[in-house]
Amino acid sequence: MNSPEQPPLDFTNPADGLLYNFVGATSQSHLDRREHDLSIARLTELRFPKSNAPAPAVPAPPIPAVFNEQYARQLHSYLFQDVYPWAGETRADRNFQGQKKGDREGYFMSYAHYRQISPDLAAVSAQLSQENNLKGLDKDQFVKRAAYYLDHFNHIHAFREGNGRTVQALFFELGKQAGYKLDLTPEFREFNPARDTALIAESSNPRNNIGRLEGLLARLVKPRAGKEAELARDPRQARPLVEPTLAVARIEALRELKASSQAVSIRLNDLRQTKEGDPMHNALFMNVQRHITPKPEGLEQMAPALRRQVEDAAQAPAKVGNGQAQLDRFSRAIDQASLLYAGQGQQLTVLPSAPAVEPEGRKTSAAEEQQKAPEPKRRGPKM
Q1: pTM for this one?
Q2: Which of 26, 56, 86, 190 registers the highest number of CB atoms within 10 A of its CB?
């Protein structure tokens, strides 16, 4: 067995094919059942803490001022402490690249490359801080921005397993700070297809892709009662952004490049099949996945080769739908991403939340002070 100083390089135990776990699982269904029961119990404790409950080995994280990688790790560590020895580790800790089949034939759900998890979380959390963690918004505004950021956290998909529950806990606290109750539990079965639709981004119109997620949040978000919640919704606290920060604009451009390359692969070209009959993407999508997402700063050098592939693909008859429109979308994505990543090398500055309008007589807690400018922690596995 691996020692704490030499953690396994993978999340999966080669002896049984299951994720390393504390519950003595003998099958995938056994592990799934125990993971669900134990993590949901922790999620419930997080929302409704009991003063007389025994203290867990990993305590609930303090109230964050910045919803960053450190906080996401702490949440994951707390929620899955009873199940996984690697709770709190991101996919980057064991070099795991996430990708899943989508519901639509031929589509994959492509997450951020594991090498980009830390910089992407830093970029998204910094922009969220600039928007004062969505304080000062009415319900419609909050729903739109919460859906936007939830989609970003889902795309980053920081963890090997447990991303849905971690995001659920994170946005419950984000909503609370903004004066809203954001509880996904009543429609959690709808949450997965809604976030998947936004992630795959089949449409060239972003509103079409994220609309299902916005509709879900619109049904679930409720204003909280009380003076503190009313103060959090005070319009004077709003810090709207005219456009994304450069770092987030780059993430969005890379996502559009991936999404549009899938659409071209599926709509314009024949899809090869594996022996099992599963569709395989052609070089257009795979080149983006394998060669650009790990090091997007090199996109400028690869753009001419991608454009040549577009020219070659244009000579083939469309197999499904409007092939030329998909080619045009991919061409625009190449141009936009190349422009944004050209000369990359700027240092990202993580800004703290904008000063909030505090209730009279309220003092900042020690936990909040501690979180003003947190540094991401790397947590080793408990073995």
Answers
A1: 0.85
A2: 86
Beta-carbon contacts of residue 93 (< 8 Å; ≥ 6 apart): 86, 378
Q: Which domain does 206 fall in, by range? A: 59-244
Q: CA 82 → CA 58, 59, 73, distances in Å?
A: 9, 12, 15
Instruction: Count the Cβ atoms, other than its own, within 10 Å of residue 243.
Output: 7
Answer with the one of 186, 220, 244 that is the final residue of a domain: 244
Same domain, yes or no, for 232 and 259? Answer: no
Structure tokens at 170: 């994170």
| Confidence band for 119, pLDDT divided at 50, 70 and 90 | very high
**21 domain-assigned:** no
Euclidean distance between CA atoms 313 and 257, whole angstroms: 16
Supply the pLDDT for residue 196.
Answer: 93
pLDDT of res. 285: 75
Question: Which residues have C-beta within 8 Å of that of residue 275, sequence separation ≥ 6?
Answer: none
State the average pLDDT over residues 49-75.
93
Taking the C-alpha atoms of residue 295 and residue 96, their distance in angstroms, rounded to an integer, is: 16
Structurally, the chain folds into a number of domains equal to 2
Q: Give the phi and the psi of residue 18 in degrees, each rounded to 5.
A: -100, 160
DSSP state of 59: P
**Residue 154 counted as domain residue:** yes
- Name residue, tokens 């800790």: 93
| Chain segment 43-56, per-residue pLDDT in tens | 999 999 888 888 89
Close Cβ partners of 27 (under 8 Å, ≥ 6 residues apart): 18
Distance CA 205, CA 188 (A): 25
For the stretch 343-348, contacts whose Cβ atoms lie closer than 8 Å and that sit 24 or more positions apart, written own/partner, are: 344/250, 344/296, 344/297, 345/297, 346/246, 348/119, 348/122, 348/123, 348/126, 348/247
328 C-beta neighbours (distance < 10 Å), count: 16
